[in-house]
Amino acid sequence: MEDKSRFFSELISALSLMMDLDENRKLFHAWRVAILAERLAQKILPEYRTQIFYAGLLHDIGAISLPEHVVHYTDIKEHFTNQILFKHPEKSAHIVRQISPLFIAADMIMDHHEQWDGSGYPRGLAGNNINLGGQILRIADTFDILARVKPPLSLNGMKTSLAARRGTEFSDLIYELMVTTLEEGDFFNEIMDEKAVADKIFTIINGLPSIDLNSCRTDTEEIIMVFAKVIDAKHSYTAGHSERVAEYTYMLAKALGLPEAEAQRLKVAGYLHDAGKVAVPRYILDKPGPLTIDEFKLMKRHPVYTMEILSMVNSLKDLVVISGGHHERYDGAGYPDGLSGEAIPFGARIMAVADAYDAMTSRRPYQKQRNSIETKEVIEKNSGSQFDPRVAKVAIKVLP
Ligand SMILES: [Fe+2]
Ligand SMILES: [Fe+2]
Ligand SMILES: [Fe+2]
Ligand SMILES: [Fe+2]
């Protein structure tokens, strides 16, 4: 991939936005925290601007499996009693640490719920024992929560609300830094306005000093694999699903005679095919019984979200229709577009078989787990209806 770091920042931004989808409304929580934290860091941590920007985007990634979005819990007591909530700073930091160039961001994330007076979590650190980046994230996170109060706060109202937390939640210094920043030009109004937030995020990405990904061992596949794990974590039953679909897609592509480079591209499409699931409520993904019509409607949106995510990333644009087409059926009865036959991109037809094969051979709440022989029988039976016969034939031969 040509510009690794651009790819990296676009992918992270796209995924963090999707994590913030709530009942089909984009919350922009991660984006607003990232923009604000980066702006604050310009003054006191300029050398870590890029790290804190990513920390802002990813700070709540460990809370992805929460049934409701983490930003809804404003009461700190709730954070101590809800185990997923209590552990999310650690979990987020653990995920981010797997992308080795972001280890500084990971340390910041670890401390983003610590409070100046020691009443925060997970470690109950106090004062300057708290990572400075973590302190910046704390106030940015709180700002975003206060920015959702209805009717919206004025600048003065915001200052008063923040002032009530100085000395307990954050230090005087951090508070003063926030106030000075909010008073700069029109910054307060810009950051309050969700549309302006969306415009700003890509301007920042373009202007930030990039993280040197070329000199470190992390390659794009590694980054994608981390995200594949995050996508699968949304769901209780899908550990390893994205990775296996990627692997099966690659195997089928090779067996169908596609060139190595193209098979590798399809593998990437496989890792990310269910990215849109991060935007589907977990109670639907994990529902043990059949879905209601409305629930199924939401479930069927996930390939659309996948397409939305991938189209935000320049270097993944060629994969949009492939990843987004994994639930299309050869006979036209699939979703989201009801395409049929050759109108479905070949890559998507391959992935449809890979995806179904893994779904059937894995434990899922709504169906019995099949072994390889039973699964291949189902694939054979549905060849020409659900599946492209050419792909089905190869799958029966080469899948494990
Ligand atoms: Fe958080
Ligand atoms: Fe947050
Ligand atoms: Fe899917
Ligand atoms: Fe899938």
The domain count comes to: 2
Percent range for helical residues? Answer: 55-70%
Poorly predicted segments:
none
Please state the second-level CATH architecture of the largest domain. Orthogonal Bundle
| Whole-number mean pLDDT | 89
What class would the helix/strand composition place it in?
mainly alpha
Spatially, the strands of the biggest sheet line up as 1-2
Main sheet: strands, sense, barrel? 2 strands, antiparallel
Radius of gyration: 22 Å
The share of residues in extended strands comes to under 5%
Which class of the largest domain in CATH terms?
Mainly Alpha
The CATH superfamily of the largest domain is: Hypothetical protein af1432
Along the chain, the helix and strand elements come as: HEEHHHHHHHHHHHHHHHHHHHH
Count the DSSP helices.
21
Number of strands: 2
Task: Characterise the protein shown here.
By secondary structure, the chain is mostly helical. It has 2 domains: 4-207, Orthogonal Bundle (Hypothetical protein af1432); 220-398, Hypothetical protein af1432, CATH 1.10.3210. The chain is built from 21 helices and 2 strands. Strands 1-2 form a two-stranded antiparallel ribbon. Helix 2 crosses helix 7 (132-146) and helix 19 crosses helix 20 (372-381). It is elongated, with a radius of gyration of 22 Å. The mean pLDDT is 89. The structure holds fe (ii) ion (FE2) (4 copies). One fe (ii) ion (FE2) binds at residues 274, 302, 326-327, 355.
